[in-house]
Amino acid sequence: MNNFKPVYKGQLEMASIRLVKDAPIMSENEIHNAGDAVKLLGEYLCEMDREVLCIINVKTNGIPINCSICSIGVVDQTIAQPREVLKTAILSNAAGIIIMHNHPSGTLNPSKHDTMFTDQISKVCQMVGIPLLDHIIVGGDNSEYFSFANKKLLPKEEVSFETDYRKLDLKKSAVAENTEMLVRPRHHR
C-alpha cells in the first residue's frame, strides 16, 4: 500500500491530506443540545442494522460543518481510535465535536466501554483544543436517546502539563496510548 518512492536517493515524495466531501445529509440548523443533534442525524443512524459511530463537527455558533462516519462495526460493538475521531475535526477546523452512535438493539444505556471511550476521547479532545460537546446514543425510536452531556457525565477536568522536566514520569502511559481503554463501545445486551 506504500506507493511513496524516493525521487532521488535521500529525497522523499511529499504527501497531502485533504477533506473529501460526500453528499450532504445534514442542514444549516444550529445544534444547541442533544435533541437538535438527534433531529439531524438520529433517524439516519436508527436505520442501521449494526453499530455506526459518527462525528458531527460544529462551528462556534453550533452550525454543523460536516459529519463523518468514523466506524462501522457489528450488531453490538464498533471500534474507534482517537486519531480517527479527530481526523475530520482537525481538517475541518471544528470548534467542537459531537459523537453519536446507535444501538441497533434499541437499548440506550451506555456500556462500560461506551463510558470508557467517552472519558478517553474527552481527555484527548481537551488536549487538542477541540472540546467534546456530547456523546449521544440513539436506538429504537428516533425520538429516544441517551446524552452524556444531559446526564452531566462528560469529564470537564482541566488537562495540565508538567512544567519541570525533572518531574516527568515517562513510564506512565499517556491517555491516547492507554490500551486498557479498549476504545470499543461494546454493549452487553
Q: Which strand-content bin applies to the residues?
A: 15-25%
Largest sheet: 5 strands, mixed
Named CATH topology: Cytidine Deaminase, domain 2
Task: Kindly provide the radius of gyration, computed on alpha-carbon positions and rounded to a whole number of angstroms.
Answer: 18 Å
Give me the CATH superfamily. Cytidine Deaminase, domain 2
Total number of helices: 3
- Low-pLDDT ranges: 176-189
Question: What is the mean predicted local confidence, pLDDT?
Answer: 79
The succession of helices and strands, N to C, reads HEEHEHEE
Report, as a whole number of angstroms, the end-to-end distance. Answer: 38 Å
Give the tally of β-strands: 5
CATH architectural designation: 3-Layer(aba) Sandwich
Helix content range: 10-25%
Strand order of the largest sheet: 2-1-3-4-5
Shape: globular
Q: What does this entry look like structurally?
A:
This protein has 189 residues and is of the alpha+beta class. It has a single domain, classed as 3-Layer(aba) Sandwich (Cytidine Deaminase, domain 2). The protein contains 3 helices and 5 strands; from the N terminus they run H-E-E-H-E-H-E-E. It has helices at residues 34-46, 82-91, 112-128; strands at residues 52-58, 64-72, 96-102, 132-138, 145-147. The chain has a 5-stranded mixed β-sheet with strand order 2-1-3-4-5, sandwiched between helices. Strand 1 and strand 2 (64-72) form a beta hairpin. The model is unreliable at 176-189 (pLDDT under 50).
